[in-house]
Amino acid sequence: MKKINNDNRETGQEVRGSSSHRTCNLRSENGVVLVVVIVLSAVALMIMTTLILLITTGTQVSGLHKSYKTALEAGIGGSDIFYELIATRAETADTNVFKANLDSFGLNSALTTSAGCQGVLGVTLYTGLAAKLLTPSTSWQNCDSDISIDPDIPATYDMKVELGTTKKYSVYAKIVATTEGNTSAGNTGLLTTGVVNASGGLVNVKPIPYMYAIETVSEKSARKAERSKLSILYRY
Q1: What's the predicted TM-score (pTM) here?
Q2: Which tens digit of pLDDT belongs to each residue from 127-142?
Q3: 84 in Cβ contact with 91 (< 8 Å)
Q4: List of E strands, 122-199
């Protein structure tokens, strides 16, 4: 009987020792699972944050592109109007009619070329806008030929118009360089004939266009940051 009891005690001790070992293993495994869950949660959070950042950035870029595209279209429209001003050839009557037509459409136009601007073509002296339209820029004096335009300083541009209805855009344009041509001689239109040669035939004069380097800036009236800038080479 004693031997059996001793065996049972010994067996019981062994059983108790085995149960304690399993408990330690379970505790150790629970700690690993917790660490894995934390790591996976952190990775998932990083992925979600990255996705939100990409979506937000994409939305912002799309908005900026849309704003720039709208300002660019306003600049192109303002440039087309400026071409019509060039076509007046600085004739006082035509220029006044042109500006009156712009104002009749509510474009709030302004012609701001400095009266002190001077240019010479042949022996003729031109001033103001006529100097920029009709004389080569190599003869200019006191004419603004800088490529920068400051909307707050009228002397830095030649014309301003306001385009749009609910959202208005101000467009500023100016001529920064002119190369003389022969495609406009006052109001007579294109020159089609020239001198008479010895054989009695007429010699047609080849049209050589005026070349204008033009700078334009367009910006949203309510938000100056929405703007675009164009550099144009225009042949007339």
Answers
A1: 0.71
A2: 999 999 999 999 999 9
A3: no
A4: 124-127, 159-163, 169-179
